[in-house]
Amino acid sequence: MADRDGFIWMDGEMVPWREAKTHVLTHTLHYGLGCFEGVRAYSTEKGAAIFRMKEHTDRLCRSAHILNMKMPFSKDEINAAQCAAVRDNNLDEAYLRPMVFLGSEGMGLRADNLKVHVMVAAWSWPSYMSPEAKEMGIKVRTSSYTRHHVNITMCKAKANGNYINSMLALNEAIASGCEEALLLDNEGYVAEGSGENIFILRDGVLHTPELTSCLEGITRQTILDFAKELNIPVKERRITRDEVYIADEAFFTGTAAEVLPIRELDGRVIGAGKRGPLTEKLQGMYFDAVKGKSAEHSHWLTPVNG
Ligand code: PMP
Hints:
Layout: E1 7-10, E2 13-16, H1 27-31, E3 34-36, E4 39-44, E5 47-51, H2 53-66, H3 75-88, E6 94-102, E7 116-123, H4 131-136, E8 138-146, H5 163-175, E9 180-184, E10 190-193, E11 197-202, E12 205-208, H6 218-229, E13 234-236, H7 241-245, E14 249-254, E15 258-265, E16 268-269, H8 277-290, E17 301-303
Parallel strand pairs: 8-9, 8-15, 12-13
Antiparallel strand pairs: 1-2, 1-7, 3-6, 4-5, 4-6, 5-17, 6-7, 9-10, 11-12, 11-14, 14-15, 15-16
Helix pairs in contact: 2-3
The protein binds 4'-deoxy-4'-aminopyridoxal-5'-phosphate (PMP).
């Protein structure tokens, strides 16, 4: 990742990709207190456009606030940085990684003189799921790792350190022949995937876990917006893992995963064992929206060239 041409926005200026470095004593590297976003820009008729950038920037600022990190840049500046990162790297579509982290001015948990840094990188990173997975769905296993409890880390913050839990769960799932993990909360109810929210469909009603220990996903909100448009009833509530086993359809949502059908959980086939009709409909609406093909959702896109 580090050895390539291009530019990364760091603390207010564009820096050549290979020179966008930080010291090994960077505080966030040691203790994980930092926050970040995963954002996508898609190729549209108006050129590359960032999907729901404002919502991502808002969440980044909320995460920083929760972690008590004072943001040194305004939302407008961070939005401009994201557009510039796509534009200056000549990207037609991109994954964007804004991150807020603490500097190397001090060490130890008590360090109180740390500078807050902000960076935004953008690169071409096509969907990590194959076209087949998007159609046939993926195999998932319930994780042996519990999702964060709301009073252990802050679940509303997309915090760097929170992802140790995600990586342990994902690595375990992959090692056992699955493609993704489903994490339960500390009471045993369904929380989310390692980097995705989850929805199930049962008897025409969509269900998704309430926002307790899962992240306030922007794709999750997009699906809730679509459901409203389609007059599909939605219940945000506690879900048990066996409700997923007996669902008619199930799918994950996330900026990276997009809308991803789940065909199997813990060896139990879900519904018809492939993408269900509502998942297909919502997935289609999602791809139309991100690619600027649906006029009613065009306000979610910010063309990087203005
Ligand atoms: N949960 C977790 C733990 C995540 O990392 C992500 C990805 N940001 C999501 C859910 C989905 O969020 P979004 O739709 O905003 O990408």
